[in-house]
Amino acid sequence: MAARQETVARVEEIDVDAYKYGFTTDIESEKAPKGLSEDIVRFISAKKNEPDWLTEWRLEAYRRWLTMDEPNWARVKYPPIDYQDLYYYSAPKSTPGPKTLDEVDPELLRTYEKLGIPLREQEILAGVETRKVAVDAVFDSVSVATTFKDELARAGVIFCPISEAVKTHPELVRKYLGSVVPATDNFYATLNSAVFSDGSFVYVPKGVRCPMELSTYFRINEQKTGQFERTLIIADEGSYVSYLEGCTAPKRDENQLHAAVVELVALDDAEIKYSTVQNWYPGDSEGKGGIYNFVTKRGDCRGRNSHISWTQVETGSAITWKYPSCILRGDNSQGEFYSIAVSNGHQQVDSGSKMIHLGRNTRSRIVSKGISAGKSQNTYRGQVSAHRKAEGARNFTQCDSLLIGHECGAHTVPYIESKNPSAQFEHEATTSKISEDQLFYAQQRGLSAEEATALIVNGFVRDVLQQLPMEFAVEAQKLISISLEGSVG
Amino acid sequence: MLEIKNLHVSVGDREILKGLTLTVKDGEVAAIMGPNGTGKSTLSYVISGREGYEVTQGEVLLDGENILELEPHVRAAKGVFLAFQYPVEIPGVATMTFLKAAMNAQRRSRGEEELATPELMKRVKEAAAKLGVSQEMLRRPLNSGFSGGEKKRMDILQMTLLQPRFGILDETDSGLDIDALRVVSEGVNSLRAPNRSFLVITHYQRLLDYIKPDTVHVMAKGAIQRSGGPELALELEERGYQEYLGEEAA
Fold first, then answer.
1. Is B158 helix (H, G, I), strand (E, B) or coil?
2. What are phi and psi of B217, to 5 degrees?
3. How far is B231 from chain A (nearest CA, A)?
4. Domain of residue B92, residue span
5. Structural domain tally of chain B?
6. Which neighbouring-strand residues pair with A340?
7. pLDDT score recorded for residue A8
8. Chain centroid, CA A360 distance in Å
9. Euclidean distance between CA atoms A72 and A74, whole angstroms
10. Number of other residues whose CB lies within 10 A of the CB of residue A35
11. pLDDT digits (tens, 9 = 90+) for B123-134
């Protein structure tokens, strides 16, 4: 038994600090001066050659933000953030704007290669040879490359950095930007509206089934730089799109702020599948450093029979504050949220979903799996509500927590509200521990303690993993195992 | 060959095994019989390496090698198999997935090539058919919602697939009806081989009608009190354990 303890101790040593994506890229960058002011907002807007309406939109958000307070209701603890001690804009110097792949700085291409994200169009993810994935790569504040643009354009799909869409498709951006998450929505979303740098823009025209998976990889590189990307996806009538975002950041001793906004709009009979594999740097084993992930994600099922589905696998970040939501406005619309949130070390997660039923016969489903290990705290916070007119609204929520070890915590905070007597809401919650019995049983059959834990955890998250596009499900499964290494013993 | 020499084991402050010595030769089926609470399950856990049991003295040698310092999965790969008194449920993990993981993990530990999925599934299906384990059970999560008899059959299926050197059956008969007992016993009997030995732990003689032991050992007060042939089991059935308990019985 001594040998076993030794092995576990060794794994614990390497564990949390062994964040695979913790390297930095040595590349010259252009930054705005530190701090935030109207001048900085104008600077960012000017850098991107934005039209006046957008500059004004940002400034209004900024002024509003000054009057707002940071939310403090989440079950997370962190020292106050000095918003004047951050850089709000950082761009790799060689790329003032997205170009063709041949013009992208080779150093950047190598960075994405190291991350396992191919920016060469002939390559594809995870060895799946028949499927193509178009990638938009966002490095600090700007998009550095977008692949398969031409092929998508032939199908009529617009997939480009939002900074580019502002110029090439101003009518679409102006119509939909802030229409799901208003500039006044909440402290972080408002901050994002003032200073958002880049992000992806997707428009799928009427009746088009997007011919490939779209994905964006976000990478924070610079020190003391906040990342404020903004993603806007519009699925026009009868269209379909599946989109995946991935996130990594270097290891740094300081905490880095990430305050993104994602807006989805699904019109009549349209469907959007949005998947996230979030692996921001979680901080070291002492809880030092790591990303503050304060994100507002919301989908608007604006049309009849529309369908929005969020799937997320969250293993990174020091603190996670995010509640991907669906506004079920169109009659017969459908919202889904599938989540796996893994926390280890000193990570704190306060995450969940909101399903707001406004239309008739709207349906929603929430399946949340929280796994806590180490000294982490993992809270599910969810809201389900039915408006007066939401005749026949239905929700099913299933919330399962798994504890590994005895120093972590899992919490479930559901808010349920119905103003229509015909609404049917169901909430199920379970909390369990990986039992010594289960671990020993699997070990007795030949699995090491780590393998046994991974197997039991995979069983626990299986029904959510099945929601991910296949090639990413494999990646996500590995990620979960890696982030739980050293959590047993 | 398994040799247990002067084994002393404590849980917390309490000494459970007090100098237990026992040898099980290759090909031998040894039965351990004894009253409840005498440390029979402790013995099976200590051999297989469960945490929480402190060995204060003694050795357990498998083919001459002391295995007490090895992790449970390493012992498993060397051929130690424990059929549990209460097999554990693992929700969400399909039985086939679990079997595959276990078989290949042991092969990896031994430095052998992993089995390809088709070959592996073929082996599982053949073994399952013999034990009356349905295809549908193989798709279900491991032991989840299985009856007591189904769980025991699943354990014997695993034993069949993993081909251990040394199999321990811990109160395998508990909670089984006669039909299930027969199927399970037949499974064990079909595994008897010159290079494989068994330790059958039981409270009642009944199981030994189906699995015929070569040797019978009476365990009480944390040690082996008497050893003999199959006739000893019949004697115990008639006379009970009183004479081995001495003062503790009172």
1. helix
2. -125, 135
3. 33
4. 2-248
5. 1
6. A313, A369
7. 38
8. 29
9. 6
10. 14
11. 999 999 988 889
A71, A135, A68, A56: which is closest to A296 by C-alpha? A71
pLDDT in tens, B146-175: 888 889 999 999 999 999 999 999 988 887
How far apart are alpha carbons B197 and B184 in whole angstroms?
Answer: 17
Q: Which residues of B touch A3 (CB under 8 A)?
A: 69-71
- Say which CATH number the domain at B42 has: 3.40.50.300
Strands B166-170 and A200-204: what pairing? unpaired
- In this complex, is the C-beta atom of B70 within 8 Å of any C-beta atom belonging to chain A? yes
Q: Which ranges constitute the DSSP H helices of chain B?
A: 40-48, 72-77, 95-109, 117-130, 135-139, 148-162, 178-191, 206-210, 231-239, 242-245
Tell me the pairing of strands B2-11 and B14-24. antiparallel
Q: Between A and B, how many residue pairs show a Cβ–Cβ distance under 8 A?
A: 94
Residue A135 is inside which H or E element, if any?
Answer: strand A133-139
Kindly state the DSSP code that residue A126 receives in the 8-state scheme: G
Closest to A410 in 3D by CA, of A378, A368, A433, A381: A378
Q: Are A445 and B49 within 8 A, CB to CB?
A: no
Is residue A57 within 8 A of residue A137, CB to CB? The reply is: no
* Alpha-carbon distances, residue A483 vs A77, A322, A433, B192 (angstroms): 21, 20, 17, 43
User: How confident is the model at residue B101, as a pLDDT?
Assistant: 93
Write the residue in A2, A447, A462 that is nearest to B101 by C-beta: A447
B119 vs B100: CA distance, rounded Å? 11
Please give the single-letter amino acid code of residue B19: G
Match 């039209």 to its residue by tokens: A51
Longest Cα–Cα distance of chain B, Å, equals 59
3-class state of residue A262 by DSSP: strand
Count of Cβ atoms closer than 10 Å to residue A350 Cβ = 21
**Is B105 close to A447, i.e. CB distance below 8 A?**
yes
Is B96 near chain A, with CB under 8 Å? no
- Give the length of chain A: 489
